[in-house]
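Fig. S4 source data, part A: sequence.
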Amino acid sequence: MHAPPIACPADRIPDATGVTAFNRASGEARDAGTVFVCVARSGQRWTVKTDTSTAAPGHTVSAPTAAAVSEAIDRLRDRREARTAPWPAGPGHTVLYDIAGEERARQIAAALHAALHGDLTPLASAVPAA
């Protein structure tokens, strides 16, 4: 497993199911200086996680990007496609639970990863507004 490239296709999002896989994927993202993103299986459902603290120093998420990410997370929650963590979701650290399938989890993860690197197009496609 290697840290995903900045423009990461859904099939290259690491599967971080289990502590060992999670730690490896997070460490590789930190070593590569990129935003951490992964999917993980939880029973019959999937989880998506992102964390910008692994990105290179100076990496920022603009206010418009942060708003777009937050709105997409709200839409996923409101549509009952995902359940959010008990703490406020935001662009710095996101955990989305109970996603119905691996393919959908990977699509969401890849879109969030692209957005956190400044490309909102995949997010608009993956989680369209009404």
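Fig. S4 source data, part B ends here. The helical segments are 19-32, 63-78, 102-116, 121-126.
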